[in-house]
Design brief:
Radius of gyration: 19 Å
CATH topology of the largest domain: 2-enoyl-CoA Hydratase, Chain A, domain 1
Number of helices: 10
CATH superfamily of the largest domain: 2-enoyl-CoA Hydratase, Chain A, domain 1
Order of helices and strands: EEHEHEEHEEHHEHEHHHH
Number of domains: 2
Largest sheet: 6 strands, mixed
């Protein structure tokens, strides 16, 4: 039996590819369990620095497999969410590489990721609106944080399709690339992030998430605490010495 999630490693980058093409990469209970396992393993792997979620070149994910809705619905109140990992917080950057339909629960999976790279075929939307299926994998919470309240409510209440360039304009995706290039570009970005000093990168990322919704004064305390952790790691001092030796002058990233 084919695995519903394929895993590959590219140096410090891990690529998780949904592999249920006959079901348009819809998530059944078996796939949800495997997704939870692979993301937990990614977070625990010291050699893994950035994770990419993709559905391949034709479709990202059509959401929950409605043929397995009863099993998935049993996890609505669960720790990890019906689709397996959407209530899991990993400590490392994640990217969604999106081609084709990224709808219903698929949109929620993409919103779980830190960044979204879409090719020109990508279509986003809350298509579950047609069937009375609720957003229970973070969509009502993450989508407004990404695109703002008004745009999120419009997508959630109308269920209309949002194509790649409109998604870019509203901030839902970071970048639109030519057809077939989403995974290549996501991998390129992943390697760039993996090359940075990791304590600062991860702590700054964590400060953003911990500070969401807090008053500014409290958010600044979060930033200070995590920034102090980074300084204590010695990364910043090592970076300053590298700068003195000429690295990074003129804004260079090489």
């Amino acid at each position: 039996m084919d695995l519903p999630v394929l895993i590959s490693a590219d140096g410090p980058v891990r690529i998780f590819r949904l592999n249920r093409p006959a079901a348009r990469n819809a998530i059944d209970a078996r796939t949800a369990r495997l997704l939870r396992e692979v993301w937990l393993a990614f977070d625990a792997d010291p050699g893994a620095r950035v994770g990419i979620l993709t559905g391949g070149g034709q479709v990202f994910c059509a959401g929950a497999d409605l043929k397995d809705l009863e099993a998935l619905a049993a996890e609505v109140d669960g720790e990890h969410g019906p689709l397996g990992f959407t209530r899991l917080a990993v400590s490392k950057p994640t990217i969604a590489a999106v081609a084709g339909y990224c709808v219903a629960g698929g949109l929620e999976l993409a919103c779980w990721c830190d960044l979204r790279i879409a090719d020109e075929t990508a279509v986003f939307g809350c298509f579950e609106r047609r069937f009375g299926v609720p957003l229970v994998d973070g969509g009502t919470q993450r989508l407004p944080r990404i695109v703002g309240l008004g745009r999120a409510l419009e997508m959630i209440l109308t269920g209309r399709p949002v194509r790649a360039h409109e998604a870019r304009a509203m901030g839902l995706v970071s970048e639109v690339v030519p057809e077939g290039q989403a995974l290549r570009r996501a991998t390129e970005l992943a390697h760039a992030m993996a090359a940075f000093p990791q304590a600062a990168l991860r702590n700054d990322r964590q400060a953003v998430y911990e500070g969401l919704g807090l008053p500014l004064s409290e958010g600044l305390k979060v930033e200070a605490r995590l920034g102090a952790d980074t300084l204590a790691s010695g990364e910043a001092a090592a970076g300053a010495r590298s700068f003195e030796l000429g690295k990074g002058r003129g804004g260079a990233f090489e």
